[in-house]
Design goal:
- Helices cover about 60% and strands about 10% of the residues.
- With about 950 residues, the protein is an alpha/beta fold.
- The strands form six sheets. Strands 10-9-11-15-18-19 form a six-stranded mixed beta sheet, sandwiched between helices.
- Strand 16 and strand 17 form a beta hairpin.
- Helix 15 packs antiparallel against helix 16.
- It starts with a helix and ends with a helix.
C-alpha cells in the first residue's frame, strides 16, 4: 500500500512538473513569436509552429493558450505576405480551436474572425472577407466588456476594407461610428483626427466634396494643436481637393500652398500639391501656369520608382489641358499615360495595347486612361478610321473588365470595376448609335446592345456560374493544382511590381502561368459532365440573335439603359429589333420617384398617380412601338437604375386607354437577359413548402435582433399571414409551418425538401448596409432573423421563391448590379425565379392574391399569367379603396416568368385513364359481338 501511494505521488509530481513546464514553455514560445513579428522575422514563425506541432507541444495545452498561439501564427503569416496561407490557417486551425473551446472569450474568437477577414482582404478575396468581418463585429458589439477604443479600431479597419472595395457609403458609416466611439474619450485626440481625416478622404472619393470639408477642418484643428506637421500637411492637401472640386479655387489654392510649404522636404508629396495647383490654374483658364505646375509635378514623380499611377495621372491632366488646344498633342500625352501603366507594351495596328500580351500595373487607372483617349478620338468625329480606333479602345476596356470580373484567379473588388464599366459603356453605346446612323445596316446598333447588356448584373451571373460549376457533383471544391496555380500567379505579379517591371524572365513566367491556369480551368470545365458549361456562358451578354432564337412568338424583350444624357430602350421580338431614345433622363427619374412615393403608401392620391403613370407611359412606351408589341402577350423587361423600383404593371398600354398594362399583358422583370433564359426547360417541380406567422405579442429576447434591427423597428401582428399559407398549401397539396412552427430553426432544417418556397413574414431592408436586410421568422424563437449570408449559404436549386414580405424587392442600389437585397440573395443562392414586393406588403391583399396565383399555377398557367390573373381577380372583387395600387402592384416576378408546373404525373394519369376507358369500351364491344 505504501509503495502504491509513493507511485501515485511520483506520477502526480511528474504530471504537475510537466504541466508547469509546458505552461512556462507556452509563455516563452508566445513571447518568441511576438518578438519575431516585432523584429520583422514573422516568416520564421510558421516553421517554429510546425516544429512544435511535430513534437506534440500543443497536445497538452488548454484551448485558450493554444488558441492565442495559433492566432499569432496566423498574424505572422499575413505579416509575411502569404495571405492565402494565413486565411487557410485561420479557417482550418485557429477558428476550429475556438469553436470547440467552451471557456473562450467572445472577443478572442471575434479577433480571429476579424483577422481571417484581414487575410482574405489582403489576398483580394473581398466577398469572403466581408462575411468574416461582419461575424466578428456582431461578437464585438455584443461584448459589453470590450473597450470602446478597441472597438473603434475594428470599425475603422472594416471601414478601410469597404473604402478599398470602393463601397464608400458603408466605409463612411463605419468611420463615423468609430468617431462616435472615441468622441467623448480623453487622450484619443490624434486617433480621432485620423478618423476625421479618413471620413473626409472617403467622402472625396465618393465625390461628396462639400460634405468632406467639415471633417478635414476638424482634423486640421487637432493636428495644429498637437503640432503634427506631417499629418497636417496631408489634411491641407486633401481639403484643397475638396475646395477645388466645388470650384472654391482661392480657398483651394490657399490650403494647397500650406501643404506645399510643409512638404518642401518631401518631393513625392510635393508633386501631388503641384498637380492640384496645375488643376486650379486649368480651371481658371491659365493654360501656361497650369502646364508649368503639371510638368514640374511630372518631373518629380519620375524620380520615384514604382510611381506609375501618379506619372500616368500627370500625363492624363496634360492631355485634358491640351485637348481643346491641340488634339494631336493631347493624344500623345494620353498614350504616354496608357503605356506608363503597362509592362511589355505590345500594340495592334491602331497603336492600342494588346490586352492579352500586356501586364497592367494598375488596371483601374489603365481603364480610365484608355476611356479618356477613346472620348478624345470619338468626340465630334465623323471620320470612320478615328471611330474604329475609339471602338477598338472600348473593346480593350471591355477585355480588361472581363478579365478582372470573371477570371477566377482574380479576386479584385468587383463593384469597383462595375463603377468603371458603367462609366465607359454608355460612351461606347452612344458611339455605336452614331456609327450606325452614318453606316446603316452595319450592325453597330446590335453591338451597342451587347455593351448595354454587359451593364446588367454581371457579378450576379458570374457568381451563379461559379456556384453552378464548383458545387456540382464532379467539382465539390477547386482542384489543388488550380489553387496552387492561382497562388503562383499572385506571387509572380507581386514580384513584377516590386521589380518595377524590369525583369523579362518574370514577365514571361507570369504570362505562361496565366495560360496554364486558363488551360486547367478549361479542362475542369470540359470534364464537368453535370453542367457542361462554357467558361463565360453566363457571364457574356446574350446577342440580339441569341435572344430572338430563345424567345417564343408571343414574347417581347424590352431592355433599358440610363446613361448620363439619354435613356435608351431596346425592343426585341422573334423578328424585330428596334431602339428608342429619350433625351431627358432626369424627367423619367423624377416621375418614377414621384410615382413610387405615391403608390407605396395606402392613401397616395390616385388622381396624381394616374397623371404620373400616364406621363411615364408616353415616355417609356412610345406610340411607334405599337407595331412591335401588337402580337406580344408576354413582356420580358430588364430595367436599369431607378426603373428597378418601378412597377411596370401600372403603366398604361401603348394604345393609351385608362387601364393598367398588367390587364393586357403578362409581365416579368429580370436583372439581366441571362436570368430570363437561365432554365430552358420552362417547367418547375410542384413540391410546396410555406411558412407564415402572426407573431407573438411578447417576443423572446434576441441579441442578434438588437444588433440588426434598429430600435425603432416594430414587429406588428400579421392577421392574415397564416391564412395565406394555409390556403396556398391546400391548393398545392404541400407542407406548411404556421405560428410558432414558422421558425428559423424549422426553415433551416426543412427548406431543401421543396421546389417551391413560400414565405409570408415580415422583411427588413437596410438600404445603407444591405447585408443587414433579413426575413423575420416567428419571434417565439430567440434566433429568428434570416440574414442574406444565411440565404447565400443555402446553395439550393429551388425553382420558385414567393417572398410575400415587405420590401423584399427593395434594397441598396449599385450601378449595373441593380438592387442588392433579399431578392438578389435568393437569386444568388440558385433559384430560377423570385416573386417579391417593391414596397410594404398588405397581408390582407396578399392573402387573396397569392393563393389565387397558386390556384392558376396549379391549373397549368405560367408564372406571369398566373400572377396577372390573380391581380385581375383581386381588382374585380376589391372595394374601391382596396383597388389602390398600394395593395396589389407591389408584387413582381423577377427571373424566368414563362415557366409553369411540371404536370407530367397528371398527364400520365390522363393517359392511363384514357387507355383504361378504351379497354372498357373494347371489352363491351367484344361482349356485344359474342
Amino acid at each position: 500500500m505504501a509503495w502504491t501511494l509513493v507511485k501515485i505521488l511520483l506520477i502526480s509530481y511528474f504530471l504537475a512538473s510537466n504541466i508547469a513546464g509546458n505552461s512556462q514553455s507556452s509563455v516563452e514560445f508566445l513571447a518568441q513569436i511576438n518578438a519575431n513579428i516585432s523584429n520583422g522575422k514573422a516568416g520564421e514563425n510558421y516553421a517554429l509552429y510546425q516544429e512544435k506541432r511535430g513534437q506534440g507541444f500543443f497536445d497538452s495545452l488548454d484551448c485558450i493558450t493554444s488558441g492565442k498561439i495559433f492566432h499569432r501564427i496566423g498574424v505572422s503569416l499575413y505579416f509575411a505576405d502569404v495571405n492565402l496561407e494565413a486565411a487557410d490557417f485561420y479557417k482550418t486551425v485557429v477558428l476550429p480551436n475556438w469553436e470547440s473551446c467552451p471557456q473562450k472569450k467572445a472577443s478572442d474568437y471575434a479577433n480571429s474572425l476579424y483577422n481571417t477577414g484581414v487575410s482574405l482582404q489582403f489576398a483580394e478575396n473581398y466577398r469572403e472577407a466581408r462575411s468574416y468581418f461582419y461575424k466578428s463585429l456582431q461578437l464585438f458589439e455584443a461584448d459589453s466588456t470590450y473597450s470602446k477604443i478597441r472597438l473603434s479600431t475594428k470599425y475603422a479597419g472594416i471601414a478601410r476594407f469597404y473604402k478599398e472595395a470602393q463601397a464608400y457609403v458603408r466605409a463612411e458609416d463605419y468611420y463615423k461610428t468609430a468617431i462616435e466611439l472615441v468622441r467623448s474619450t480623453s487622450g484619443q485626440e490624434i486617433r480621432k483626427a485620423g478618423y476625421y481625416q479618413d471620413v473626409g478622404i472617403t467622402l472625396n472619393d465618393s465625390k461628396k466634396f462639400a460634405e468632406a470639408i467639415p471633417y478635414f477642418l476638424e482634423a486640421i484643428s487637432i493636428y495644429s494643436e498637437y503640432q503634427d506637421q506631417r499629418k497636417l500637411a496631408m489634411t491641407y492637401h486633401n481639403i484643397s481637393i475638396s475646395y477645388l472640386s466645388i470650384d472654391s479655387l482661392s480657398v483651394a489654392e490657399e490650403h494647397v500652398n500650406r501643404a506645399a510649404s510643409l512638404h518642401s522636404d518631401n518631393l513625392n508629396f510635393l508633386s501631388n500639391d503641384l498637380e492640384v495647383l496645375g488643376l486650379i490654374n486649368a480651371k481658371r483658364g491659365k493654360q501656361k501656369e497650369s502646364e508649368r505646375f503639371l510638368k514640374r509635378s511630372l518631373v518629380l514623380r519620375k524620380k520615384f520608382k514604382g510611381n506609375n499611377r501618379a506619372i500616368s495621372s500627370s500625363y492624363e491632366n496634360l492631355a485634358e489641358l491640351y485637348f481643346s488646344q491641340d488634339k494631336n498633342i493631347a493624344v500623345k500625352y494620353i498614350d504616354s499615360a496608357i503605356f506608363t501603366l503597362i509592362i511589355n507594351p505590345a500594340q495592334n495596328d491602331f497603336g492600342n495595347p494588346i490586352i492579352s500580351h500586356v501586364i497592367a500595373l494598375n488596371e483601374v487607372s489603365l481603364i480610365r486612361a484608355m476611356g479618356l483617349k477613346a472620348q478624345m478620338i470619338a468626340k465630334n468625329s465623323t471620320n470612320q478610321e478615328s471611330q474604329l480606333i475609339a471602338l477598338d479602345l472600348y473593346s480593350k476596356i471591355d477585355s480588361l473588365l472581363t478579365i478582372n470580373l470573371f477570371n477566377l484567379h482574380f479576386e479584385k473588388s468587383r463593384l469597383a470595376y462595375l463603377e468603371l464599366l458603367y462609366e465607359h459603356y454608355p460612351d461606347v453605346i452612344k458611339l455605336c448609335h452614331e456609327m450606325d446612323a452614318l453606316y446603316p445596316n452595319s450592325g453597330y446598333d446590335k453591338l451597342g446592345f451587347g455593351y448595354s447588356s454587359k451593364t446588367k448584373s454581371l457579378v450576379l451571373v458570374s457568381e451563379l456560374n461559379e456556384k453552378k460549376l464548383y458545387n456540382s457533383e464532379s467539382n465539390n471544391k477547386l482542384d489543388n493544382t488550380i489553387i496552387q496555380a492561382t497562388r503562383n500567379i499572385n506571387n509572380l505579379y507581386s514580384e513584377i511590381l516590386e521589380s518595377g517591371g524590369d525583369s523579362v524572365a518574370l514577365i514571361a513566367s507570369y504570362l505562361k502561368a496565366q495560360r496554364e491556369l486558363e488551360e486547367k480551368l478549361n479542362v475542369q470545365l470540359t470534364h464537368n459532365t453535370k453542367n457542361n458549361l462554357a467558361k463565360y456562358d453566363l457571364s457574356n451578354p446574350m446577342s440580339v440573335e441569341e435572344i430572338q432564337k430563345r424567345m417564343l412568338p408571343h414574347q417581347l424583350y424590352l431592355e433599358f439603359l440610363i446613361s448620363p444624357d439619354q435613356l435608351i430602350s431596346y425592343w426585341i421580338t422573334q423578328d424585330t429589333f428596334a431602339i428608342g431614345l429619350i433625351p431627358n433622363t432626369e424627367l423619367v427619374e423624377n416621375l418614377v420617384a414621384s410615382l413610387q412615393s405615391l403608390v407605396s403608401i395606402r392613401n397616395g392620391d390616385i388622381d396624381s398617380i394616374d397623371q404620373i403613370r400616364g406621363l411615364l407611359s408616353n415616355l417609356l412606351l412610345p406610340s411607334w412601338s405599337s407595331d412591335i408589341t401588337q402580337d406580344a402577350r408576354e413582356w420580358l423587361i430588364v430595367p436599369d437604375g431607378i426603373l428597378h423600383q418601378l412597377s411596370f404593371d401600372l403603366l398604361t398600354p401603348i394604345h393609351g386607354n385608362e387601364s393598367y398594362l398588367i390587364e393586357e399583358v403578362d409581365i416579368s422583370t429580370s436583372y439581366t437577359s441571362r436570368l430570363l433564359f437561365y432554365n430552358q426547360s420552362r417547367k418547375i417541380n410542384s413540391t410546396y413548402q410555406g411558412y407564415g406567422t402572426s407573431y407573438a405579442e411578447i417576443p423572446r429576447d434576441n441579441a442578434r435582433s438588437n444588433n440588426i434591427l434598429p430600435p425603432s423597428y416594430q414587429i406588428n401582428m400579421l392577421a392574415n399571414a397564416e391564412k395565406e399559407i394555409s390556403r396556398s398549401q391546400e391548393i398545392m397539396n404541400g407542407t406548411s409551418f404556421l405560428g410558432a412552427a414558422a421558425s428559423k430553426f424549422n426553415f433551416i432544417k426543412n427548406w431543401n425538401k421543396s421546389d417551391i418556397l413560400h414565405l409570408s413574414l415580415h422583411g427588413f431592408v437596410d438600404k445603407n448596409f444591405y447585408e443587414k436586410s433579413c426575413l423575420i421568422f416567428d419571434n417565439r424563437e430567440s434566433d429568428n432573423l434570416l440574414l442574406l449570408s444565411d440565404v447565400y449559404a443555402m446553395d439550393n436549386n429551388i425553382d420558385l421563391a414567393v417572398l410575400s414580405s415587405c420590401y423584399t424587392a427593395s434594397g441598396q442600389f449599385y450601378k449595373g448590379e441593380g438592387i442588392q437585397g433579399i431578392t438578389k440573395s435568393f437569386l444568388k443562392s440558385g433559384k430560377t425565379t423570385v416573386i417579391s414586393s417593391l414596397w410594404e406588403a398588405s397581408d390582407l391583399s396578399a392573402s387573396r392574391i397569392i393563393p389565387f396565383f397558386f390556384n392558376r399555377l396549379k391549373k397549368g398557367l405560367t408564372l406571369t399569367k398566373s400572377l396577372k390573373e390573380a391581380k385581375i381577380e383581386y381588382l374585380k372583387n376589391a372595394t374601391p379603396s382596396q383597388r389602390h395600387p398600394y395593395y396589389w402592384a407591389n408584387f413582381q416576378i423577377i427571373g424566368q416568368g414563362d415557366i409553369s408546373l411540371d404536370r407530367g404525373y397528371n398527364n400520365l394519369l390522363w393517359i392511363l385513364g384514357g387507355l383504361i376507358l378504351i379497354l372498357i369500351l373494347f371489352l363491351k364491344l367484344f361482349k356485344s359481338k359474342n
